[in-house]
């Protein structure tokens, strides 16, 4: 009886370990963009601003505002946490992230150039603030 | 014509202009005004934070 219990416990534990392992594989390493956000990005309706936040490129619609506000609130929370961890201000951290986010845009996506204009990313390096690394 | 006379005339003309116009018109420049965002943030700070910010973007791919 005791032996059987041990066996059962072992198999349950093994199953749990297996599930954890499988779950680890099944879930992507990093969460992906919400489909609505991904679509707006691909369509050039939203773009990366210099200050590290997302902006609406053309005419604003309630749907676009919703997407952009949602993303920016989440970004600000992340910037705030990382700024604290790195002894920087939120603005400093956000501007740095903006440099990187603009660099990470793919051709066709929109980003804000140092003069404030919206640009479409091409294969060429993006126009960035001279302070960007 | 000496200098003081000239200065006097210029002052009179300017006074007249201001008096007649009643106000001074300032025209907006043709060129767009470029506002330097966060001018007080130094490059060395950005360089220090660059790696961490890059990792943050990768780790939060859903919001970037």
How would you characterize this protein structure?
- The complex is a heterodimer of chains A (133) and B (64).
- Chain A is of the alpha+beta class.
- Chain A has helices at residues 2-26, 35-42, 62-85, 90-103; strands spanning 46-48, 54-56, 110-112, 118-120.
- Chain A has a domain at 32-120.
- Chain A is globular.
- Chain A starts with a helix and ends in a 13-residue tail after the last strand.
- The relative contact order of chain A is 0.12.
- Chain B has one domain (3-63).
- Helices cover 56% and strands 0% of the residues of chain B.
- Chain B is built from 2 helices and no strands.
- Chain B has helices at 3-21, 43-59.
- The chains are: A alpha+beta (133), B mainly alpha (64).
Fold blueprint:
The complex is a heterodimer of chains A (133) and B (64).
Chain A lengths: L1 H25 L8 H8 L3 E3 L5 E3 L5 H24 L4 H14 L6 E3 L5 E3 L13
Parallel strand pairs in A: 1-3
Antiparallel strand pairs in A: 1-2, 3-4
Helix pairs in contact in A: 3-4
Chain B lengths: L2 H19 L21 H17 L5
Please describe the structure with a list of short key phrases separated by commas or semicolons.
heterodimer; A: alpha+beta; four-stranded mixed β-sheet; 4 helices; B: 64 residues; mainly alpha; 2 helices; 56% helix
Low-confidence stretches of chain B: none
Structural class of chain A: alpha+beta
Q: Give helix and strand order of chain A, one letter per element, not per position.
A: HHEEHHEE
Cross-sheet strand order for the largest sheet of chain A = 2-1-3-4
Brief summary:
Chain A is an alpha+beta fold and 133 residues long. Chain A has helices spanning 2-26, 35-42, 62-85, 90-103, and strands at residues 46-48, 54-56, 110-112, 118-120. In chain A, α3 (62-85) packs across α4.
